[in-house]
Amino acid sequence: MRHILRLARRGLYNTNHFFRVDKGFVAQVADVVGGRTAPMDAHQKAIASDSVQGEFSELKHVRGTLSMARYDDPNSGTSSFSILLGAAPHLDSKYAVFGRLVAGEEVLSAMEAMPTRKEGMFVMPNERLTILSSYVKEPYEASTSECILELRETKHRADGLAVEIEKTRQKRLPGM
After folding, report:
1. Are 117 and 108 in contact (CB under 8 A)?
2. Are strands 81-84 and 26-29 parallel, antiparallel or unpaired?
3. Could you tell me how many helices (H) and strands (E) the chain has, helices first?
4. 87: burial class by Cβ within 10 Å (0-12, 13-18, 19+)?
5. Assign residue 83 a region: left if phi > 0, alpha if psi is -120 to 50, beta otherwise?
6. Which CATH number do you get for residue 31?
7. Is residue 176 in a domain?
8. Which helix (H) or strand (E) holds 105?
9. Could you tell me if residue 162 is inside a domain?
């Protein structure tokens, strides 16, 4: 989904978290408007609240599937999404599948092993599972110069450092 890529490219998932980890079902990322600890600039705020039209397909909801979260309205998805931790055929053709996990299975397993608590309809981890940094790894194109690739990698590292700086600022200057 272009919308999720746009949010990730703008750093909106940095300092967000997985608010839900329901073993065998889903690990769900919080909406960036309420889930981030870092403040958003005006442009980030504008795109964070954009909603997307439901895009449904015949793709199956199985372990490792990335699926758009939404309310009852099929066109109410904003920035929350789930990574499926098991098969969920009841979601097929009702929630938009937009990706698939290609690495990190051990992370999903570790998340499932964490202690959780039930709050209403959600199973939530006992401790905050923060996304320190996220980035979009662009596919390699044969015509892309090595210089551009190095710049992209440098940008990814800089994004990660920005998150670390923000965490340090929050610890040393809370409330600012």
Report:
1. no
2. antiparallel
3. 5, 8
4. middle
5. beta
6. 2.40.100.10
7. no
8. helix 105-113
9. no
Domain with 113, as residue range(s), is 2-136
Q: Is residue 97 assigned to a domain?
A: yes
Read off the pTM: 0.78
**Number of domains present in the structure of the chain:** 1
Is there a contact between 30 and 102 (Cβ–Cβ < 8 Å)? no
H or E element: which one contains 139?
none
Q: What's the N-to-C CA distance of the chain in angstroms?
A: 34
Q: Is 147 left (phi over 0), alpha (psi -120 to 50) or beta?
A: alpha
DSSP 142-171: TTS-HHHHHHHHHHHHHHHHHHHHHHHHHH
Full pLDDT tens readout for the chain, 176 residues? 788 988 998 899 999 999 999 999 999 999 999 999 999 988 888 899 888 888 888 899 999 999 999 998 989 999 999 999 999 999 999 999 999 998 999 999 999 999 999 999 999 999 999 999 887 877 655 556 666 777 777 777 778 778 878 888 788 777 66
